[in-house]
């Protein structure tokens, strides 16, 4: 009986060791491009790209290269990405639209003067992402912003939430746009 219990415990230990977690690795973008959208339309990355920066124009019609929304879509050096099971999350001016912690942004919609994204100021498209067929989730999210419209995620972080404004700056006293950026972390079976 003691030998049987020992074998069961060893089997559980081996199984648990085979699930590996890789903390805070982040992703290095490459082959980046901009995707633009008019008011009320979603700028969207391809299924193998992630969002690394966002511009939401609000009242400043020239802030995003003449577009209402501009996102930077990139592939990553660490391997092939894929995304699926997407949801759209709309939010009011000055409020953060946030992906669940198992998702990242693949698209964004914003408005100039009237709520035009699912009858809200802005919306984001959140998707489940996999890197080399292993699911990604958010680690160490931080709010990023500037006194303006265009926001970059810090090195190796990607967008997981967005605040945007209708008309005047509403995310902070001088920010039209804020992002929540997180390191994509990886669970995989060894």
Automatic annotation (TrEMBL):
Residues of the signal peptide: 1-24
Domain of life: Eukaryota
Keywords: Signal
Protein's recorded name: Uncharacterized protein
Higher taxonomy: Eukaryota, Metazoa, Ecdysozoa, Arthropoda, Crustacea
């Amino acid at each position: 009986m003691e030998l049987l219990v020992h074998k069961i415990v060893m089997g559980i230990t081996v199984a648990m060791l085979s699930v590996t977690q890789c903390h805070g690795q982040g992703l290095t973008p490459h082959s980046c491009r901009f995707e633009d959208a008019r008011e009320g339309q979603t700028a969207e990355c391809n299924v193998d790209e992630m969002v690394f920066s966002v511009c939401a124009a609000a009242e400043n019609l020239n802030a995003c290269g003449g577009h209402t929304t501009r996102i930077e879509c990139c592939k990553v050096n660490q391997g092939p990405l894929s995304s699926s099971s997407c949801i759209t999350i709309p939010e009011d001016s000055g409020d953060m639209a946030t992906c669940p912690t198992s998702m990242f942004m693949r698209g964004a919609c914003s408005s100039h003067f009237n709520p035009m994204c699912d009858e809200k100021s802005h919306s984001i498209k959140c998707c489940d992402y996999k890197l080399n067929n292993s699911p990604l989730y958010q680690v160490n999210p931080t709010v990023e912003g500037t006194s303006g419209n265009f926001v970059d995620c810090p090195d190796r972080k990607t967008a997981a939430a967005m605040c945007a404004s209708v008309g005047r700056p509403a995310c902070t006293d001088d920010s039209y746009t804020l992002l929540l950026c997180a390191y994509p972390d990886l669970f995989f079976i060894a």
